[in-house]
Structure formats: structure tokens, C-alpha cells
Amino acid sequence: MSPIQALLLGLVQGLTEFLPVSSSGHLEIVKALFGLELSGNESLTFDVVVHLGTALSTIVVFRKEIGEIVAGLLKFEWNDETKFVSFILLSMVPAGFIGLGFEDEISTLFEGQLLLIAAALTVTGLLLFLADRAKTSGKRVNAAEAVIIGLAQAIAILPGISRSGSTIATSVLLGIDREKAAKFSFLMVLPIILGKAILDAKDIISGEALGAEVSTL
Questions:
Q1: pLDDT at 157 over 60
Q2: Which pLDDT tens digit goes with each residue over 160-169?
Q3: Which of 52, 51, 143 is nearest to 89 (CA)?
Q4: Are 29 and 159 spatial neighbours (Cβ–Cβ below 8 Å)?
């Protein structure tokens, strides 16, 4: 991957990551339009870099909320902050299960398949359309809703299904206040992003180590 290609993909990732338009879907479209093909190691390295960039920007934007959560956890008591973190952990279960078990197969299935990606983008658009017309009650996320929102995040492993779009839309359709839905959506992804970056970095290191061993034979 050339520096220009890396810049182009990074620009697309940066512009679409926090919009409900599916960054993964748009990356696949750009790759197809420009005939970009990444090797396994290049793809993993790119994923690690953009995931870390996403995590860093999320931490910067929500630094006040994260600080309040940390302060609440350090009180070592059951309060709003510990409850919020427990709901985030609940929401991670579906995404972690599907991501660890099926991510590679799904990525292979959708790679370069613009019709499938277009269909997924249409689903994202429909979710946003429904959420825009939904009435909210101003309530917060509860345990059952955290699991449902986690399922929406898990489905967003499909390129073209926006993670933020699906989770925020699902939250709003459940009657959760839009501002609280957005906050929960962006904070719930932090552990997933950081975990994914660590696993990808581990694969890169393992691959390089294996390559070094093979080269010495």
C-alpha cells in the first residue's frame, strides 16, 4: 500500500467513522473504485492504526464523561457510573461472540461485493429513517436494552451496516433519549475497539515472527 493509498483510506475512515454511514462499507467501496488490494499484514496494520485513532478521538471527545465514570468506579460502590459500565460490559457480549467467531468469514464474504454492501447500506438508511420518526421518552439504558443494543452492534460487523447508526437507531427505537443513546453508543465501542486493536497487533507480531522463522529455514 502506497502512502497516497494509505492517506486516502485513512481520510475515508476518519470522515465516516463517527457518522452513521458505515466506515467499513465506504472503505470497501473506495477499495473497489480505485482497485486497492491490501495484503493480510497490510490490512491488519491499517486496522490497528485506524482503531487506535478512533479510540483516541473518542477518549478526547468524551474525556469529561470518561473522567466521571472513572471517578465513580473509584468510589467502589454501586452508583450510576458502575451501573453504566456494567451495561457497557453487557452490550459487549453479543459483539464479542460474533466478532471473535465470524469476523474473518464475514469480511471475506463482503470483500469487493458492492451489491451486498449496497444492500447493507440500505438497511442502515432504513434504520435511521425509522429512528428519525420515533418518539423517545427520555429514559436511560437498562440491562435488557444494553443487550439488545449490543446485538445491533454485533450485526454492524457486516460492512455497510453502520455501527453508530445501528446502535443509536436501536436505542432511539427503544425509547431512549437521543443524547443518552449517542453517549452510550460511542462509549460502548471503546473496549471493543481497543480489544480488536490488541488482537490485530498480536496477529501482526505473530505473523512477523513466523515470517522470520521461515526465512531462516
A1: yes
A2: 899 899 999 9
A3: 143
A4: no
